[in-house]
Amino acid sequence: MTTLIYDGSFEGLLTAVYEIYERKICQIKIQKEKWLSTALFEDVLQIHTDTQKASRVLKALQQKISAAGLQRLYAAHTAGLEGEDVMLIGYIRYVFDSPQNVEEDYGNKYVLRLSEIVRKVRREKHRMEAFVRFQKLEDETFYAAIEPDFNVVPLLSKHFKDRYTDQKWIIYDLRRNYGIYYNLHDVEYITLDFSVNNPSNVISAYTEDEGLYQHLWQNYFKSVNITARKNTKLHMRHIPKRYWRYLTEKF
Amino acid sequence: MNADRITEKLNILADAAKYDVSCSSSGSKRKNENKGLGNASNGICHTYTEDGRCVSLLKILLTNHCIFDCAYCVSRKSNDIKRAAFTVQEVVDLTINFYRRNYIEGLFLSSGIFHNADYTMERLVRIAKKLRTEHKFNGYIHLKSIPGASDELMREAGLYADRLSVNLEMPTEEGLKLLAPEKNRQDMIQPMDFLKKEIIQRTEEKALFRKAPQFAPAGQSTQVIIGATPETDKQILYTANHFYKNFNLKRVYYSGYVPVLSDSRLPALNTSVPMVRENRLYQADWLMRNYGFHVNEIVNQEHPHLDLDIDPKLGWALRNLQVFPIDINKADLQLILRVPGIGVQSAQKIVSARQFGKLDWDQLKSIGVSLNRAKYFITCNSRNFERRDLTGTAIKQYILSQSQSKYLKTSTTQLNLF
Predict the structure, then answer these.
(1) Cα–Cα distance, B349 to A221 (Å, whole number)
(2) Domain coordinates of chain A in residue numbers?
(3) Residue A99 in contact with partner chain B when CB distance is under 8 A
(4) SS3 for A238?
(5) To the nearest whole number, what is the mean pLDDT of chain A?
(6) Which one, A151, A178, B115, B236, has least CB within 10 Å?
(7) Are strands B326-327 and B378-379 parallel, antiparallel or unpaired?
(8) What average pLDDT score do residues A82-94 get?
(9) Which residue of A lies nearest to B363 if distances are taken between CA atoms?
(10) Minimal Cα distance from B102: which residue of A?
(11) Nearest Cβ partner of B6 from A129, A165, A216?
(12) What is the pLDDT of residues A199-238, one digit of tens each?
């Protein structure tokens, strides 16, 4: 058993695959650098991310699977589900070791697992497209805070850019402490400083009518409920409690 | 805007609109091409009410004043309730401001009928027009077609709205006569028929000239109330099938009657909402639209009602045991779709995966097949399969004893020994 330590990037993951083939390693564990604990590893290999090695693996992948398949692999990795990197490497190895394109071989555990991860990530992305609640700030920027289960912010930018082209907006992942900001032209990645003594704190004040529309929305939410059909179990399944913090109608 | 007044109006007019069950915002392809606000390309449920229904659109009535006196409707003329009406500008402001905050996908605007059909329809169209032209709003708009509205207004509505709908209200003409004697079915069918022809014509135009304007790109839908009148499931599903086939409807919605009014023609006020029946009707509707079932395979002369204990697909399978068992590694996709416990996605995965090798029980399970139902109807790459020659009743008992129904807390078919 060899434990690979890598930097967490997609290129790093591809470099790891390169090393696995180069050194003919069979059994592996893989860890991101920051998780490195003091435990004693039997056999540790530090992966140094190498653009050339990574791009060779990428090229080889492009010949084996479709562009959409590669997209899925990338999205699954970026989402950062804990402990799944070993499955992703397993998937890549299965792709390389099979003579034909195995993207749809759902009888294989790696292919099936990748499709499950992608489904989870897609669902979280879709949830965020639904659950983002903008609040209008004094400078006409619409701000929303989220805490998604997985790292899906990069996947959100196209949807919101297409939809809200004529307003400035920020979607901020408080758990991972970064966000995306649309400035009426492009989407850029940002980090905000929320400390109280920071005078340029963006989230300082809402517009006058923000309170009114939040109040109207809460009222609307109550009015459309049909009490005779109350179904709390179904309600909770659709909006699990962990999302309530940022939902205006659930404040 | 006076905050208290607008809040009160919103409460009244959202409350009155909530019995319209449609909240779909999918099926349109409106893009944000004019640097405006919004698009209508994907259905998103932004939140869910405490009764578990999706909230996708701002669903309101323009007014709940109405000249009609339909027995099943809260807004009927003789009902002593608070009345209110929005101005055009108020609806526009609410829609835009809710949309900008990502609360909604768009607007679903309906109305009580004041003065006459055209007068009402003209107001609805005016709001849609203002949103589209003055505010460059590309979000989803669903307008109610008012029965009896002129072709001219319907044509204009189709230019601004993504979806239009006329509610049939009652599954049969007799039911409508009983509960809404002032309305007639022909008035409802006429705008539907007009829109169907117009949509076909405009789609052909669009195929020839890409620049041709979109016309109701998300099509038409309708709604029938169930449980208010004594129709059988067969009558309801045959009506639905008729409208799917002859009017190209995108969806028929089934709304379990919520007893809100006391009237000798209606179920009593303490009657419970027929939620299980409603659920079974939707399942049957899905089988017709997505699983290739013909309506008479689901309900027919011998079986005019859907079984409330089990879903209609299992019901069909139990009546047609001669079709089974099928070999999952060989059968056509169409046949796999008919196996209870296998949905559209699992069926497609099975067909893809079996090209790489024969599938066994574990693989089927991890693909997402619900084996506790499917195992009685299939064989796969394994020597284990159901060898007993079970009757339909026996299979039904086995399945029911293993599953917990979402609705039936105390199932009558489940024998309790202790």
Answers:
(1) 38
(2) 2-123, 132-207, 209-251
(3) no
(4) helix
(5) 90
(6) B115
(7) parallel
(8) 94
(9) A107
(10) A133
(11) A216
(12) 455 555 788 889 999 999 999 999 999 888 888 999 999 9
Across the interface, of B45, B100, B256, the residue whose CB is closest to A134 is B100
Task: Determine, for residues B15 and A223 on separate chains, whether the beta-carbon distance falls below 8 Å.
Answer: yes
What per-residue confidence (pLDDT) applies to A194? 73
Residue B97 with chain A: CB contacts under 8 Å: 209, 213
Residues lower than pLDDT 70 in chain B:
1, 404-418
The fraction of chain A above a pLDDT of 90, given in percent, is 76
Cβ atoms of A55 and A116 within 8 Å: the answer is no
By CA distance, what is A115's nearest residue in B?
B367
Alpha-carbon distance of A222 to A242, in angstroms, equals: 20
pLDDT of the residue at B204: 87
Q: Are B254 and B238 in contact (CB under 8 A)?
A: no
Distances (CA, A) of B362 to A108, B341, B356, B366: 11, 15, 16, 6
Task: Say what the pLDDT of residue A23 is.
Answer: 92
Cβ distance B37 to A166 less than 8 Å, yes or no, reads yes
Residue of A155, A167, A225, A245 to mutate when probing chain B, most B C-beta within 10 A: A225
Superfamily of domain B3-259 in CATH is Aldolase class I (3.20.20.70)
pLDDT confidence of residue B411: 46
Closest by CA position to A189, among listed A163, A167, A171: A171
> Chain A contacts of B328, Cβ < 8 Å?
none
Q: With 70 as the cut, is the pLDDT of residue A197 above it?
A: no
pLDDT tens for residues B150-175? 999 999 999 999 999 998 989 999 99
Letter string b/e over residues A160-175, b meaning 16 or more CB atoms within 10 A of that residue's CB? bbebbbeeebbbbbee
Question: Under an 8 A CB cutoff, do A219 and B7 touch?
Answer: yes
Whether B101 and A134 lie within 8 Å, measured CB to CB:
yes
Collect all residues with Cβ–Cβ distance below 8 Å to B260 and sequence separation of at least 6: B74, B269
Q: Does residue A113 have a pLDDT over 90?
A: yes
Q: pLDDT digit string (tens) for A67-80?
A: 999 999 999 999 99
Instruction: Report CB contact under 8 Å: A224, B59.
Output: yes
The confidence score (pLDDT) of residue B384 equals: 86
**Measured between alpha carbons, how far is B86 from B65 in angstroms, rounded to an integer?**
11
Domain ranges of chain B: 3-259, 323-402
Query: What pLDDT shows up at residue B23?
Result: 83
